[in-house]
């Protein structure tokens, strides 16, 4: 009976459906690559897979919020005036993480970190591609819905941890498509989960300081794009980026501006 009640929970349904839709698209991508489907087809499938949490939320929306309109719900997520102090603080902290990563990698490893894109045009296209493949497709479901719902029952810190873990494991199929095996795969997964849970804490704090979904979208974009633009040994880059986010998460938990994380 407990399991049945749990499965009737709208938030649980959202998580399960997000996982299922992502897995379906991921499987379709794999099949497409095996049969030699055009690259344009696999690219579209990759983009759609990133929107699986949005698709899940849209499908379940009438049952989650009966009588409400989806467009009104989305408008509310962007209704609060954007606080430039919060926005620039988020950008500054994440840019410092990138700078710190480049400095430490250059001085402590054999990895030479360079830009993946040399032309502004390519960099801009990569920026838009990254935005569509990640933040725009994921934040409505994971932050706009799941985080806000969990915060109705739990403290922001606990909600952030729960979303971080659930959102992290949603990426599971990507781990096994990374090309890593053995110890390297374990290291990759560990760094990924440390980073994504830490990022979830970081973004929850700043999102709660300014309840506008632009904050998590921008934060997520910088988080992802930093890994795209830095060219080098991925595991070395991940080691520093993710541990920096862990350090930042620890600091914001300790400092906890305006007691946001424990309200």
From TrEMBL:
Residues 123-225 form the CAAX prenyl protease 2/Lysostaphin resistance protein A-like domain. One of its GO terms (molecular function) is endopeptidase activity. The chain crosses the membrane at residues 12-35, 41-61, 82-105, 157-176, 188-206, 237-255. InterPro entries: MmRce1-like, Rce1/LyrA-like_dom. Keywords: Membrane, Transmembrane, Transmembrane helix. GO terms for biological process: CAAX-box protein maturation. Pfam families: Rce1-like. This is CAAX prenyl protease 2/Lysostaphin resistance protein A-like domain-containing protein. It comes from Oceanobacillus limi.
